[in-house]
Amino acid sequence: MESEFIGKYFDTDIVLRDASVDPHNRPTRRMIANAAIGVEVDDAYYSLRELREAVAWVHEGDPRGKPKLKRMLANECDDYQRCLYYALAGRGIVQMLDDLEWLEEILEARARIVGVVRRTTGRSMPLVAPYVSAEPDGILPAPEGDFRQGPSWYLDPSLTH
């Protein structure tokens, strides 16, 4: 019965599963691909895009960046964005943005394909929610005040000065 189910339904997470075990992907990419498995298609994409935008704004010195990033990391929702951010934190801003953009491309394609599949056949495998609660699990950063940007934001060896 299970093989019959798998044969008739599109596996929404197949590309993420492949990316999460591909030895040619750096470990951070494998981690964030794993973090996106099971996350609802639109939520995965738009949450990642919002995070990538906030990180880019902080990096570029845009005054909207820090407040937006703080709000996201202190948000009372599930831990998906925090998981992505902290999986990449401290690795260097260039790699962080590169990895976020890499995953964004995958998640955008995933959302487009799932949209086509749902419109044409209506048969995509149900996602198994990776979070047991829509609330955060653990200590949240304070949303008010400033935050110090550590060396990975400005001493990244990939940055050209």
Query: Into which percentage range does the β-strand content fall?
Result: under 5%
Overall pLDDT: 85
The helix-strand sequence is HHHHHHH
Which blocks of ≥5 consecutive residues have pLDDT under 50? Answer: 1-6
Structural class: mainly alpha
Enumerate how many helices there are, as a single number. 7
Taking Cα atoms only, what radius of gyration do you get, to the nearest Å? 17 Å
Intertermini distance: 59 Å
Q: What's the number of extended β-strand segments?
A: 0
For the largest beta-sheet, the strand count, sense and barrel status come to: none
Structure characterization notes:
- There is one protein chain.
- The protein is mainly α.
- Helix content is 57%, strand content 0%.
- It is built from seven helices and no strands.
- The longest helix is centred in the middle third of the chain and has 28 residues, at 93-120.
- The termini are far apart.
List the helices and strands and how they pair.
Layout: H1 2-8, H2 14-21, H3 27-36, H4 41-60, H5 65-73, H6 80-88, H7 93-120
Characteristics:
single chain, mainly alpha, globular, disordered N terminus
In short:
57% of the residues lie in helices and 0% in strands. With 161 residues, it is mainly α. The radius of gyration is 17 Å and the shape is globular.
